[in-house]
Amino acid sequence: MFLLGLLLLCDSLPGISYEWKGLTSAPKGFCTEVLIKAADRILLISWQESTGTNQWTTLEEVRVDRGELPKSYQLCRKHGRLGQKVRIVLSTLSKSGPRVILYEGYPWGEPPSPPIITLKTGKPSLLYIDFPNAGKYIIRAFNRFGEEIFTIPLDIAAPQQVAYTWPPILRGTFLIRLYDIMLQQVVAEKTFAL
Asked: What's the rounded Cα separation, in Å, for the pair 90 and 64?
């Protein structure tokens, strides 16, 4: 299956001529190919994965030797998880040097809509969580000192709303976090005071 077939001709890095041939799905996962025609310096082509807001880790990297040009370079990744953001970067060796982001997106699929946490106060107070997607989750509640006061594992088979009666003896300020086991990250959180 062909995912993205852009042919990118660009001179946004002075002294470098290249063609980016897109991101495609293949039996070995997703692959990207870059033809480096000419370069006046050593380059790196990197496959990076998001680890947070504006934070990236390099999973695979190839060094472009300007003495071997023109040459086509390919990077492939076999495994990835739904909602994992990746990018392909063409850069110089210097961390502060110029770079071009050839691709940034979700090749394995965009993250699902996050669950919504609400609390209805009263006697008793009810904690509601609306799950727009099936999945395996863990609910964790923390008090204002950061101490975990309870953990509830959930296996949601279909989109639904789950309600829990808040224990009436628990008073104060609390943080509720919902952890998605498949995505391996917190997908929703809410603070409230009782």
From this structure: 10
